[in-house]
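Re-running the complex after MR caught last week's input typo. The corrected sequence lines follow. Everything else is unchanged.
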Amino acid sequence: MTDERVEFSEISPSEFFYRNRDLAGFSSPSRALYSAIRELFENSLDACELYGILPDVFIRVTPLDLYTTDSDPKAYLIEVQDNGFGIPPKHVPKAFGQVFFGSKFQLKQSRGMFGMGGKMAILYGQITTNKPVSITTSVDGVQAFTFDILIDIQENAPIILKKSSHPAEGSTGTTVRLALNGDYQRASQKVREYFKQAAMVTPYANITFVDPYGRLIIYERGTKSMPPPSKEILPHPYGMDVEALRRLIRQSKEDIMVKFMSKSFHRVGDRVAKKFLDYVGFDQNRDPKSLSNDDITKFIRALHEYDNFLQPDASCLSPLGKENLMVGIEKELGPEFVAVATRPPSAYSGFPFIVEVGLAYGGKIIPSGTKLFRFANRIPLLYDEANDVSSKVINEVDWKRYKVPQNAPIAIITHICSTRIPYKTVGKEYLADRPELERELKNAVREALRKLKLYLSKKNSIAMVKRKLNIYSKYLPLIAKFSTELSGAKRLPRYDRLLNRKQIQGDREDDTEI
Amino acid sequence: MTDERVEFSEISPSEFFYRNRDLAGFSSPSRALYSAIRELFENSLDACELYGILPDVFIRVTPLDLYTTDSDPKAYLIEVQDNGFGIPPKHVPKAFGQVFFGSKFQLKQSRGMFGMGGKMAILYGQITTNKPVSITTSVDGVQAFTFDILIDIQENAPIILKKSSHPAEGSTGTTVRLALNGDYQRASQKVREYFKQAAMVTPYANITFVDPYGRLIIYERGTKSMPPPSKEILPHPYGMDVEALRRLIRQSKEDIMVKFMSKSFHRVGDRVAKKFLDYVGFDQNRDPKSLSNDDITKFIRALHEYDNFLQPDASCLSPLGKENLMVGIEKELGPEFVAVATRPPSAYSGFPFIVEVGLAYGGKIIPSGTKLFRFANRIPLLYDEANDVSSKVINEVDWKRYKVPQNAPIAIITHICSTRIPYKTVGKEYLADRPELERELKNAVREALRKLKLYLSKKNSIAMVKRKLNIYSKYLPLIAKFSTELSGAKRLPRYDRLLNRKQIQGDREDDTEI
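Corrected-run output:
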């Protein structure tokens, strides 16, 4: 037997995702169109929010051949323009033309996580239409740069076809134009739903969408108060592994353990560091670079076992806030009743997270049954709901306990923000059921349900009081009349004060039970 | 504003998966243990089957510290040994220590698809236990090689700690030993279920599993007939994109279009190629290397529109076959009734696939309700069932039409084999709902249900006949007796011949309805 029967080969990261595009949500012309639009749009929001700029995002989808009468799937041009920070020109080619190169690899809350979405859109566009992506960007508002780029998939490297510079005329930000083979007819419902939900959680953004038929959909900014930009944090001891510890030791300039710990770890000061070093039995003045392989193993095990580290600080996170969530829900769903429950910060494997849950009941928009709206770091998640941790929680809650009538019109809105969302797919469709996440979600949903129960029971008792008053208002005049006659008095007693006339009259016409 | 506010960086493929291990099914100690076992086991089966070797696989999981009384999660040693083809020693370091290097990047049916699973197991083991992976392998049965390897995650490169060679004593194949932090207590149920289901679809394999308590579970080979090894095929025109076409042109030695097509595409001969070139309006003698950018775009569009290409040939696939599936189901589920439906080969985006469905009813093992067993290229899929295309199909089938009683004890087994399974996650948990796949699954499930309906209706009518005979057998003697008395005859008529005595007697005791 010779080696020839086993063929080994190496592929580039671009090649891997090119071959396995189902992984990133680019599995069909309709899905690819949807994914491309949302990935570019989310990059635009990040480019504004992370730098404290109120977002103004313009999205347009046009058939590439304007005169075509072909049915879908066909080539579409996608344009996404923002007023964000812009991209320094030296980084543009790699940022758009090289997989695993990007600005999303820090420990901080952002919509993007894998640095993959935009590149997958470009790659998919390139292989289906044979056209380059065009990027125009300016960081200073003075000079703008335009690049036309293709990706060399086998080499995972950008090919610059054209580069030019021109006056920016005062505006910073980035515009991306790319062509891809898409099916808008099938994607349109999801695309519109996506923007509607996105507007619900970014009420401080102006979003303008022009669809392929030229129809304009505008979500106007409802508030100028934007959550403060999220901050980068140090890693928490509970999230450490051997590899991460080695890297910290290599990078650190500190030469004693206690300083190394307090400078490298999130929420570890000298006092906590000393206590921990006592616990694990390491000299606090030892040089971290002197740790042997076995020392590192021992250190890591102790980090995970030690109970006295402080929980991650969530000030690096940027939740929606009760007000924003409430406003968003009322604006988009117009319900009869809203409750919002926000959990205190928590953590899984050293990553801080915050759960926010909204519950809307009744009104004209919400249909019968329970509808779930899922958000993660302010991204609406529309696909693969059945496997998501939120679905799991809602299925497991004991609804009867909260006396919610069957098929009541209810919308549940869940939002999770974290420095690291535990997505199960590169396409960011749904979240893993980490136990810590599940617990916080369950508590928030229960809290919201308790509020609904209170509201419903109040509503019921008011209805009951009204019904009683209705009965009184029918019989009291008769009783008054008879007793007046019996007593021989001439004037009826003033019983009408006993009834709150106004309230009863309003309801009488509808109330057919009596 | 300076560039410093935007930090760009490059990460290696190892780094990407190290950071995002949820993507590959390594999200918790229990899940990681499960995923590591199955990935190594599946690599072993591939290493046998792809070379026509009857698999003999030995798996052992042991607490790394044999004397520990610690509760889970804790460090476990996983050992997986096979009698497969072995790995040429020059390829060992990269095959185990470099992400995106491997032997699974061809267009042929195999369990592995991403070349990721084994490496994720090694990576996870390394970062949680700080230990190298150890690989022993022999391709010729004469000389064996042992490597101890760590992965340099930032560089995506193997670090060889130790290398040695020794006599193989006649046995080829590979043994992998790695340590990882796992939770067997939580994983055990899934692990055992996994092996049980794996045995169901590989009845020609000997599988030996020793669990951490030293308990031995053996699945013995039930047959020596193994499906023929799957073959590599050329790409089908329907699966082409611009990138793939460019590569084929670059690699091809043919200098006229008609030959280029017939040598590069699956199921395209000179005749089909000529017809297509007429259709698209290209000279059949043109040099493929002379195609311009626009020509390539035009060519690709035409490839997708043209209706007269032959469907992909499924002879490259290796389905289970009716017999094997039937045997597997009967062995593992012991049902009252089995039906198997196999669909003719079909294709999605140029990738051939075959759907096989088994339906088992009744017996002692299957509980009430419908239980789904999913397989893809002979891998049992145990996680994320709710989003799988098979779940979707089963939910959408009109069960009433097949007169299946509510809560009947039914197991549905679906197996899809393809040169490219459309997994939605790197962890190979579930399949995308490609319309072609959905259609074939639906047809197969319906076919199996029709068979069940027939069986159930036959069973009912037999029961009815029996019941009638039971009534006759009670009343006939009396009628005979009375009519004999009335007629004054002395001997009873021989009515017993009218009844099939034997059949009735057998049932009478159970039949309490009369």
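None of the earlier attempt is carried over here. Chain B has 13 helices and 16 strands. The longest helix of chain B spans residues 435-487.
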